[in-house]
Specification:
The protein is an alpha+beta fold and about 350 residues long. It has twelve helices and 13 strands. Helix 7 crosses helix 10.
């Protein structure tokens, strides 16, 4: 069989809305699918980001769907932009997901490389993006490099739960352990599950913290409300922490497949009792370990001053990848914009 004939075995199409269950079933059994990839989450993200969601799938002759790729298209000025994940949705990584039937490396790589090539051809033919931006946790990104994409490593933090809680606790930094002990001996702590009505309090906490850091938090109440309504029973959990009868902070965890993710919230403020954030993470780790999850993830390990704190819990950095590509037109506008930012920064520095 010729190389060209082999490639015709891999066909990309847009999944119909009526096939949403098929999409979710595939994400559930895929190697790198996350709750962020589920169809309901993608539709909520489409509304939040003001983009257009295209649920692409790649089918292989005789096997059906072997990959799903959520892409989001946005037009900005003269440019057409493609994202996965879309901006402003607090999704740490997305990109294509895969499920290959063979255990043989040669066949896996053949399926992977031909699938990504099929996606690129479909995207180029149908959308003609000036810029593509992917964040993918799939480990093998060589084909993107070979196709001319810029690939850079990014990181998140995970704690393996393959040891008993006493051993995990002993690996915490001494200062972390002391804070937890002090809270446990001196305060009454309640971490309770709450419903949709508490999303506004969570968002107010986060937005206030972002304002202090001169940043803007984009996800809104409707977006979080939609997600909790869809996934709140099984996967998405909103909690409030109460200490000695007083509200301290809110946070959201995600439970899916073999892991628990600390997703949003748990922000520091003047009202928070010293040691509460540490106690919250320890409580989450104990609960995840007792329920036989494989690891606990604190999303994000790309900001140096935040990493110093997170590593004190014994969490280890785990890699994912930023994948980017510009068209010739997009590159021109990008360079112009970069020069504008440099001039503005220089002006501000001399003000």
């Amino acid at each position: 069989m010729t190389k060209e004939k082999a490639k015709t075995k891999y066909k990309v199409r847009i999944l119909e809305a009526s096939e949403a269950e098929l999409w979710d079933d595939f994400v559930d059994r895929s190697q790198n699918g996350t709750l962020f990839h589920k169809y309901g989450w993608m539709k909520a993200a489409e509304k939040q980001s003001n983009t257009h969601f295209y649920p692409l799938v790649c089918e292989k002759d005789g096997e059906g769907i072997i990959s799903a790729f959520p892409v989001f298209i946005m037009k900005k000025m003269f440019l057409k932009l493609l994202f996965s994940p879309p901006p402003g949705c607090a999704i740490p990584y997305l990109g294509p997901v895969f499920s290959f039937s063979s255990n043989k490396e040669h066949r896996i790589e053949t399926d992977l490389f031909n699938t990504v090539e099929a996606y690129e051809l479909f995207i180029k033919s149908n959308y003609k993006p000036d810029y593509e931006y992917l964040l993918t946790s799939f480990y093998d990104v060589r084909i993107f490099k070979w196709l001319g994409y810029k690939v850079e490593p990014s990181y998140t933090y995970r704690l393996l739960l393959n040891e008993c809680c006493d051993t995990i606790y002993s690996n915490f930094n001494k200062n972390i352990r002391n804070k937890i002990k002090k809270i446990q001996s001196s305060h009454e702590v309640e971490i309770k599950s709450v419903g949709l009505n508490s999303t506004e309090r969570l968002l107010n906490d986060i937005k206030q913290r972002y304002m202090e850091l001169d940043r803007y938090f984009k996800p809104g109440k409707d977006y979080l409300g939609d997600l909790i309504e869809i996934y709140g029973d099984d996967n998405l959990n909103l909690y409030e922490c109460i200490v000695d009868g007083q509200y301290q902070t809110s946070f959201i965890t995600i439970e899916y497949k073999n892991n628990v993710k600390f997703w949003l919230g748990g922000v520091h403020s003047n009202r928070i009792t010293n040691g509460i954030i540490e106690t919250i993470h320890w409580n989450n780790i104990v609960n995840a370990s007792k329920r036989t999850f494989d690891y606990y993830e604190r999303v994000g390990a790309n900001t140096r001053h935040l990493c110093e704190n997170k590593s004190r819990y014994g969490l280890k950095p785990v890699i994912y990848f930023t994948v980017e590509k510009w068209s010739n037109t997009g590159k021109i506008f990008y360079n112009i914009y970069q020069k504008y930012l440099e001039k503005r920064q220089a002006k501000e520095n001399h003000a």
